[in-house]
Amino acid sequence: SYELIRRSLEAAREVPGSVIASGAGTDHLQPGPEASVDAVIRAYEEQCEAVEKLGGRIILMASRALAVAAQSPDDYVRVYGRILGQVRRPVIIHWLGEMFDPALAGYWGHADHYRAMDVCLQVLRDNAAKVDGIKISLLDKDKEIAMRRRLPQGLRMYTGDDFNYAELIDGDASGHSDALLGIFDAIAPAASAALAALADGNKAEFHDILAPTVPLSRHIFKVPTRFYKTGVVFM
Question: Which long-range contacts (CB under 8 A, 24 or more apart) does 207-215 make?
Answer without folding.
Answer: 207/166, 207/170, 210/165, 210/166, 211/166, 213/183, 213/187, 214/163, 214/164, 214/165, 214/166
